[in-house]
Structures are given as structure tokens and as C-alpha cells.
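Q: Here's a chain of 98 amino acids. Please give me its 3D structure as C-alpha cells.
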Amino acid sequence: MSAPSVTDMTSAQESDAREVPLTPVQFRRVLGVSSRTLQRWVAKGLVEPAFRTPTGHARYTSAEVAAAQGLPVPEGDADVDSDEDDEIENADGSAVTA
């Protein structure tokens, strides 16, 4: 089988550049996990954001979604529709408290 052409690689790079990064809420909803589970994964180094915005907010791409699929989810910790899961986070990823 031949190697991909320059045109093929350019098309792949362009499609990656057009990928819309996910917020932590979107990321965990795609995976079907709670904010607490995502926080645990980040704290354990199992998941890392692809990048942070200039204001420090985490963003994830399809590569992080693929890497996170199959990670352990604590029993009873997959409640993704809870209002408390939509917390605002600080630049360091910690939850903002009132």
C-alpha cells in the first residue's frame, strides 16, 4: 500500500483544524459521565485537555474523547443531567464555589 499523498495529508490537517473543540460540559456529556468523574480523571492524569483558552478554560478534541472512552466510571457517578454538574470552573479546572 502506498503512503498518503501530500493532498491527502493536507485534507486531514485542514479537517483537524476545522474541528470545534469541546468544553468540559460537552466533553463529559459525549462520554456520559458526571463532572466529578471528569475531575477525578484529570486529577489522576488519565485525561488532559487538548489546550486551554487564553482565559484558562479547558478544551477537548476528538482525540481526548477517543482516549477517554473505556476509562473506569465509578458506579452511580454517571448522572450527567444533574444541575450541580454544570458548575463553572476556575482556570485551574477546580469548581467555582459561592
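Q: Can you summarize the key feature?
A: The helical segments are 6-18, 24-31, 35-43, 62-68.
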